[in-house]
Amino acid sequence: MKKVLKNKGKSLRLTTLGFTLIELLAVIIILAIVALIATSITLDVVEDARKSAGLSESHMILNGINNYCASIEMKKQLGILGTEDVDCENKDTFTTEEIRKMVNLGNAEVIEIEYRKKITWLKVKSNGYVYSLQDNAMVEGNLDKPKAEYAVGDLLKVQVSDSETQNIYVLEVNGEEIVGILDRNLTGGTVA
């Protein structure tokens, strides 16, 4: 909307601060597009933060249970084990109540756990996501428990020469790698 005033033969233009309907619609459409982009970016950031927090919580549960059981072992050696303490020895799993005594689960839930002197399998649900133990670390995903041929404490007979075998006790299983200890010193051969 424009008004034209004549002043002594010169034309003077005076514009008002009004917008046409098309200009208003264009501004509204541009603002809506910016809002949609900002909303999707914000939602992605929030979702990534939820996943990260859940992964961190599952790591804390893993480390918390292992640390708790190590401290219980030390208490047993010192003879100061309390009646409220959860005994980790000779157990391969724990109840939800026992886990809650060991660590603060918050809103997380332990779905599966296997313990053999340390946690060998763990699956945790936190913030709506499932995290599983893989290669001694928690990862996002609902993984299946790996099938291990050997478990901690197993006795393996290993052929070290044509005529000699050695006994090896499994201390740790990491995927396809086994850490063990011989039941006695070797007399001359080596174990591979």
What features would you describe in this structure?
This protein is of the alpha+beta class and 192 residues long. It folds into two domains: 44-140, no CATH class; 147-192, no CATH class. The chain is built from two helices and nine strands; from the N terminus they run E-E-H-H-E-E-E-E-E-E-E. A four-stranded antiparallel beta sheet has the order 3-4-5-6, covered by helices on one side. A three-stranded antiparallel beta sheet has the order 7-8-9, with no helix packed on it. It is elongated, with a radius of gyration of 33 Å. The mean pLDDT is 83.
Quick structural summary:
The chain has 192 residues and is an alpha+beta fold. Helices cover 34% and strands 30% of the residues.
SSE layout and pairing:
Layout (H helix, E strand, L loop, with lengths): L1 E6 L2 E6 L5 H58 L17 H7 L6 E7 L3 E8 L2 E6 L2 E4 L14 E5 L5 E10 L2 E6 L10
Antiparallel strand pairs: 1-2, 3-4, 4-5, 5-6, 7-8, 8-9
Our measurement of the CA-to-CA distance between the termini, rounded to an integer number of angstroms, reads 92 Å
Question: From the alpha-carbon coordinates, what is the Rg to the nearest angstrom?
Answer: 33 Å
Number of DSSP strand runs: 9
Mean pLDDT: 83
The number of domains: 2
Form type? elongated
Judged by helices, strands and strand pairing, the structural class is alpha+beta
Low-confidence stretches: none
Helix coverage percent? 25-40%
